[in-house]
């Protein structure tokens, strides 16, 4: 039997060397100790180093209670009044990053959730239940922000964000702070953004949320403001902020309407699943009163065909993250005034 400490537990800061299991009512953000009883949709979990570790029946997993309302993966969460946790309580692995709850629905292509049996809530030597430490800020800093959102999961948001981070850092020498403000916790995406040349990195798990599903607007927005302030304090001159899942869920509409974050925003990159989704995203922005300037990314399809259809149908020019010229047009068109003077090549402003 092996024990895997999952990546979402990092929001609890440093864990004691030895954990004990205690009974009680578990709520979102509480750590739990569980045993794998059936391997299903997720045969691996992500550990605190961002590495996917294979799990087998009998293995122990230390995860975090929370909700996940994915339209492309598992949907589930916790009872409104909390989950009664004791030895033998059944639960499910809702996400690779270690989110644990009760699965309600799963796509047939994914199969049923990996089944767990809770040993108890995770406690330290003093018997106190360990929980993620929530962080929030009342205001957002003025540091420029570029949001990167999409119409679904796995459409290329992280790919686009990483390409933009690299372009800003390598071409303009800007100190870029990277973050993921919404979705389901997983360290892999943040590491991908950091590896693209970021100056500093932190996400909503670092702000004490295993996911941003099931939380109030104040909680999600407060965490987003905190992350922008944290990255600013670490020297970021511009922040590239990924928004996980689709634009409808995970508290994303609240983030995109927050006055402070809107004032700091320079662009909202929309990465669509297909060309029709480009139109849907544009319509959604109008209906929801989102005023941040949109930038339309290229879907995971034929680039030439996508440019032609969206160009004719919507009158907008798509941005291909794999095209340096496209990225430079994005920077010079919307971000140039947000960059420090030393970062802008002579004659560009």
Derived structural class: alpha/beta
The mean pLDDT is 92
Q: In which order are the strands of the major sheet placed?
A: 16-15-17-14-18-19
Quote the beta fraction. Answer: 25-35%
Low-confidence stretches: none
Task: Briefly summarize what is shown.
With 349 residues, the protein is α/β, with parallel strands linked by helices.
Describe the structure.
The strands form 4 sheets. A 6-stranded parallel β-sheet has the order 16-15-17-14-18-19, sandwiched between helices. It has 349 residues and is of the alpha/beta class. It has 8 helices and 19 strands.
List the helices and strands and how they pair.
Elements: E1 3-5, E2 20-22, E3 24-26, E4 31-38, E5 44-46, E6 52-54, E7 60-65, E8 68-69, E9 75-77, E10 83-85, E11 89-93, E12 99-105, E13 114-123, E14 145-150, H1 157-172, E15 176-182, H2 187-195, E16 200-201, H3 217-233, E17 238-243, H4 252-257, H5 259-264, E18 265-271, H6 275-287, E19 294-296, H7 303-314, H8 324-335
Parallel strand pairs: 1-7, 7-12, 14-17, 14-18, 15-16, 15-17, 18-19
Antiparallel strand pairs: 2-13, 3-10, 4-7, 4-13, 5-6, 8-9, 9-12, 11-12, 11-13
Keyword list:
single chain; alpha/beta; five-stranded mixed beta barrel; 8 helices; globular
């Amino acid at each position: 039997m092996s024990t895997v400490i999952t990546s979402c537990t990092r929001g609890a800061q440093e864990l004691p060397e030895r954990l004990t299991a205690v009974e009680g009512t578990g709520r979102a953000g509480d750590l739990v100790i569980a045993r794998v009883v059936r391997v299903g949709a997720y045969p691996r979990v992500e550990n605190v180093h961002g590495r996917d570790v294979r799990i087998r029946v009998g293995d122990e997993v230390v995860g975090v209670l929370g909700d996940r309302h994915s339209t492309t993966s598992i949907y589930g969460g916790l009872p409104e009044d909390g989950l009664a946790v004791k030895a033998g309580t059944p639960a499910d692995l809702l996400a690779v990053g270690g989110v644990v709850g009760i699965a309600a629905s799963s796509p047939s292509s994914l199969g049923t959730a990996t089944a767990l049996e809770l040993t108890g809530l995770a406690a330290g030597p003093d018997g106190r239940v360990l929980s993620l430490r929530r962080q929030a800020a009342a205001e957002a800093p003025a540091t420029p922000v570029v949001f990167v959102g999409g119409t679904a999961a796995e459409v290329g948001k992280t790919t686009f964000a990483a390409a933009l981070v690299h372009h800003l850092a390598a071409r303009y020498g800007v100190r870029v702070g990277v973050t993921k403000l919404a979705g389901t916790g997983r360290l892999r995406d943040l590491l991908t953004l950091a590896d693209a040349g970021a100056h500093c990195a932190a996400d909503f798990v670092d702000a004490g949320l295993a996911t941003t599903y099931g939380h109030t607007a104040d909680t999600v927005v407060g965490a987003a403001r905190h992350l922008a302030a944290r990255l600013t304090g670490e020297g970021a001159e511009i922040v590239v902020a990924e928004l996980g899942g689709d634009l409808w869920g995970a508290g994303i509409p609240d983030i995109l309407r927050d006055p402070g974050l809107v004032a700091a925003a320079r662009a909202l990159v929309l990465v669509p699943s297909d060309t029709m989704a480009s139109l849907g995203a544009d319509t959604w922005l109008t209906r929801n009163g989102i005023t941040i300037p949109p930038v339309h990314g290229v879907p995971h399809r034929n680039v030439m065909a996508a440019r032609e259809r969206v160009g004719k149908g919507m009158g907008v020019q798509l941005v291909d993250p794999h095209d340096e010229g496209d990225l430079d047009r994005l920077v010079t068109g919307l971000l140039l005034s947000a960059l420090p003077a030393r970062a802008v090549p002579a004659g560009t402003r």
